[in-house]
């Protein structure tokens, strides 16, 4: 189960009530920063913008590829460890606006994690150190350290131990 906090709403769907749940000015500022960041080819500048203007926690040498979209409403709930790669056109969500409620949850991505292109990471998920998420995956639950996962819905393809055995057998060939 993902770790999210639930907020029930009444009368209309939660997205219709968005500015009762979050400041318009915060969303506007975050949108501008993210649009600029999506197209910025300089990793240091992009990370600085995300750290200073969106209050994301980002480790050294982490790379957000072209067109990555961090959460627009709650980017401060995203943590990415050091030396990780977030692949092209991926989305990291820290919120979900549903019909009867909205949910908010921390997203924690460990050190040396590889997120493949066009992946979506849902709120309340933790991805362990040295994990690999294959391209096009929907990460809807926690990913163990060192695992290789993929698909929609995401499944464990190889555990950390199986990945280590594969690396050893490839070296021996």
UniProtKB/TrEMBL annotation:
<dbReference type="InterPro" id="IPR001451">
    <property type="entry name" value="Hexapep"/>
</dbReference>
<dbReference type="InterPro" id="IPR050179">
    <property type="entry name" value="Trans_hexapeptide_repeat"/>
</dbReference>
<dbReference type="Pfam" id="PF14602">
    <property type="entry name" value="Hexapep_2"/>
</dbReference>
<dbReference type="InterPro" id="IPR011004">
    <property type="entry name" value="Trimer_LpxA-like_sf"/>
</dbReference>
<protein>
    <submittedName>
        <fullName>Acetyltransferase</fullName>
    </submittedName>
</protein>
